[in-house]
Amino acid sequence: MKGGTLQINWHDTKPVLTLDFHPPSGLLATGGNDHDIKLWAVMVVKESKKGPTTTYKNSLSYHSSAVNVLRFSPSVSLFVPESDLDLFQSAGEHLASGADVVWHYLIRFHRKDVMDLQWSPDGGFLISGSIDNTCIIWDANKGSVHQILDGHLHYVQGVAWDPLGQFVASLSSDRTCRIYVNKPQAKVKSHEKLNYVCQHVVSKSEPQRQDDAKAQLPKAYLFHDDTLTSFFRRLAWSPDGSFLLVPAGIYKLSSKSEAVNTAYIFARKDLSRPSVQLRGASGPVVAVRFCPIMFHLRGSNTAAGSFKLPYRIVFAVATLSSLYVYDTESSTPVAILAGLHYAAVTDIAWSPDARYLAASSRDGFCTLLEFENEELGSPISTTERAGVVVAMEIDRAAAAPGSADGEKDSKPIEVRREPVVPAKSTDSSKPAKKRITPVAIV
């Protein structure tokens, strides 16, 4: 891995609030306090040890306020930035020139700025979260409001859409994470109408008992309150839908102990409580993002642990000042990067080929990291990925709405799936890597 913070004028020295990679072209799009979206080509200088660099390509200057979040649609041709939700349409490969970028919709309904948004798996809808305390599900084809979710009591700073389409999740500074399940209404023109209803409101948990104490311990909050010095709490689903990763977590071992920063992992089979936590963060976690590519296992897939997956999933966790890279085969980070920026990190993004990881900051700069020579592992093939998709669809068909209210017991919740991807063969002369069990909440 190589790279670092690029000392270029990203947005006229103003805070860079968001970034995302364009799937077909690999262009990096950034948005900031200068009201602009800028497009950059990522390049690697051969025989250079300094890592990748970027070249400015184009600007989209249509915005009346700061660009808080931008995300490309999975359908490729659409992407959304801005607090007022502008939809742009592009031919993809011509995005850098700007010749084929067409302003598609300006859809307004939020009363205040949008802090986060996410597309539905098919690109037909998107969900946004705003500091007006609401989430809105939009019909991207019609450019209209489809449904309003108004259960939060304070700013909504993160939203995520389940890749299987069954759930959406939101995270707010009211210290709650809300899980909504799709209970379709009557069919309209042979299509079921999306209808998300709140299934779980996750806010508190019981601290672990010490020395077999019989006294009832008070429940502790799982998330930071509104004093967290960030407007972003960007949560995300794993690409296979196995689990939900939620930032801005705090955890107490006992009622008298100090709170530590963490990110929580919610297993799909029980979204009513977190099953695993990632302790040790240097500060509050403000954003998480999954690598779009899944990898072969590096060791034995029979080792004990909370993740029982026949493949490896890699994800990045950003605190206000540091960046961590994890995978599902180990509880310790694959990489830790600190001291990259002088101000808070605001967003992170993976390139479509998993070669680059980018982070934006309020100090006006971005960090760009490059992973070389299958450093993250051996990607699963297209055929194997298709097997994963089939397994996902089977799970979706088998899981009726409300099935996530599974029985609660004292055992760690495990994410299990029947092996559909063969592990890459390993050299028998090399010892298998030891697996470390993540901390599980009981």
TrEMBL record:
UniProt keyword annotation of Transcription regulation present: yes
One GO term describing the cellular component: nucleus
Record-linked SUPFAM superfamilies: WD40 repeat-like
Location relative to the cell: Nucleus
Coiled coil: none
Keyword Nucleus included in the entry's annotation: yes
Residues in CAF1B/HIR1 beta-propeller domain copies: 1-376
WD repeats by residue range: 16-40, 107-148, 149-180
InterPro entries recorded: Beta-prop_CAF1B_HIR1 (IPR055410), PTHR15271 (IPR045145), WD40/YVTN_repeat-like_dom_sf (IPR015943), WD40_G-protein_beta-like (IPR001632), WD40_repeat_dom_sf (IPR036322), WD40_rpt (IPR001680)
Basic and acidic residues composition bias: residue spans: 405-419
Domain of life according to the entry: Eukaryota
Keywords carried by this UniProt record: Chromatin regulator, DNA damage, DNA recombination, DNA repair, Nucleus, Repeat, Transcription, Transcription regulation, WD repeat
Pfam families reported for this sequence: Beta-prop_CAF1B_HIR1
GO biological-process terms attached to the record: DNA recombination; DNA repair; DNA replication-dependent chromatin assembly; nucleosome assembly
Span list, region Disordered: 398-442
Family stated for the protein in its record: Belongs to the WD repeat HIR1 family.
Name used for this protein in its record: CAF-1 p60 homolog
